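Collaborator request log, item 7. Partner lab (contact: R.S.) asked for a structural prediction of Transmembrane protein to inform their binding assays.
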Amino acid sequence: MDKKQFLQYSWKPDSCNLPRFDGVNFLGKLKGKKIMFVGDSLSLNMWESLACMVQASVPNSKTTYVRRDPLSFDYGVTLYMYRTPYLVDIVRETVGAVLNLGSINGGNAWKGMDLLIFNTWHWWTHKGQSQAWDYIRDGSEVYEDMDRLVAFNKGLTTWANWVDNNVDPNITKVFFQGISPTHYEGREWNQPNKNCNGELEPLSGPTYPAGAPPAAAVVNKVLGTMKNPVYLLDITTLSQLRKDAHPSTYGGLSGNDCSHWCLPGLPDTWNHLLYAALFM
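Returned to partner:
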């Protein structure tokens, strides 16, 4: 098996050309700026990709990384990664760990950034032992569970209100990373009983057979209600076509990971979109 086969493919838009990622230009135009990715492990995927792309462009620059600290380049650009899978808070109450759909106290750490890239959804679907909370709080009511899309909408609305009330758009640019798809269900691309494991080629065509995930509609709805401008990096469809780009095929580990992405790989395309959105 050619372990680099997934690198043979790149995404190109139909009606325009994506600019080549220029790390020197990126650092020069963002000199002295603070960039923070906020979200789950898919945010980490994108953060790691951007860090590698920039470092590859300026291999002789001084780069500083201390575990749990941001990554700093000698251009004065600092890349932060803030892990928070739901954006809203999980708090300890007498009943146990509670996902509070109306609480976002963690947002204090996001203030003072020049560029914020948010992401959430992956963990909202987790159940059983992989679920990070025991109960959900919605206002004064506490529930054992609720429709996850409803909960996601409520939590994302809390985040949107936080951005509107705490971010000055004249100082800070805000992006939402978009919904990163999974490939656990082959029926979504008309191959029942399959998943991403062993897939070596992407899907062809401009659309995904199963259509957009419902969470994408929630994101669009919430962003449409905001008074502050938030730029959606709409990575969903182009990522849905890349059933071949997950670690399950190449990682050599037990179990299937059809959620995250190989690096180098698809998250580099996400950062090409970020670069284009910033500088085109």
